[in-house]
Write a structure and sequence with these properties.
There is one protein chain. The chain is an alpha/beta fold. Strands 1, 2, 3, 4, 5 and 6 form a six-stranded mixed sheet that branches. Helix 1 packs across helix 7. The longest helix has 23 residues. The radius of gyration is 15 Å and the shape is globular.
C-alpha cells in the first residue's frame, strides 16, 4: 500500500540516517531529501532558511515544498511508498497535508535533546549546520502534528522499530479530497 512518510527534525536529529534505515523495510520506495531538492537543483542564487526569513528565502522554501509535493504525489500515485526527509515546521506540514488530496500521510518528528543533536551534528562528515538551526527545536516541539519521538537515548535500529511499530499509525494525518 502506498503511503507518504514525512521525517522531520532539526539538523543532527537523525533524519537522513533514520530515513535510509527505514527505507530498507519497504519493497517499492522513493526517498526524497528536501536539501537535495533545494540546494542541489538550484544552480545559483539559493537562499537557505533563517530565523527571520526574507521574502526571497520564503519564496525559495515554498518552491522547495512545491517540488517535494509534486515528486511525492507522482511516486505515490504509481504505488510507491515515499519517505520525505525534510525540516518541517507546523505551517508547512499543514500546507503539505492540505495539498495531498486524500493521499495517506504520516508525520514523524525526531526530537532528541538539542545537545544530543549538536553532538551528532559535530560527528558528521562534511556538513555541520545544527548550531545555526537550534531555534527550530522549540517550533517543532510546539507543533503537535503527527508522531513526536525523542531519540536521545535510542539507536537508529530502535528508532526505526518504534516508527514501524507505532509511529506511522500514530503519526497519520488526514488530508481532504481536493
Amino acid at each position: 500500500m502506498a503511503q507518504i512518510i514525512l521525517i522531520s527534525g532539526i539538523p543532527g536529529s537523525g533524519k537522513t540516517t533514520v530515513s535510509l534505515a527505514l527505507a530498507k523495510h519497504f519493497k517499492r520506495l522513493a526517498l526524497i531529501e528536501g536539501d537535495v531538492i533545494q540546494h542541489v537543483l538550484t544552480f545559483r542564487g539559493c537562499v537557505g532558511p533563517m530565523a527571520d526569513p526574507t521574502p526571497e528565502c520564503e519564496r525559495q522554501y515554498r518552491l522547495r515544498w512545491q517540488n517535494c509535493l509534486s515528486l511525492a504525489k507522482n511516486f505515490y500515485d504509481e504505488g510507491f511508498t515515499v519517505i520525505l526527509e525534510q525540516v518541517a515546521e507546523p505551517k508547512w506540514i499543514e500546507w503539505f497535508r492540505d495539498h495531498l488530496a486524500g493521499r495517506t500521510l504520516s508525520v514523524i518528528t525526531l526530537l532528541p535533546r538539542v545537545e544530543v543533536a549538536l553532538a551528532r551534528d559535530r560527528d558528521r562528515q562534511g556538513k555541520t549546520v545544527a548550531e545555526r538551526y537550534t531555534f527550530l527545536d522549540d517550533r517543532l516541539r510546539r507543533g503537535r502534528l503527527g508522531y513526536h519521538l525523542d531519540t536521545s537515548e535510542l539507536t537508529v535500529t530502535q528508532t526505526v522499530e518504534r516508527i514501524l511499530q507505532e509511529g506511522i499509525a500514530l503519526g497519520r494525518l488526514e488530508s481532504e479530497e481536493i
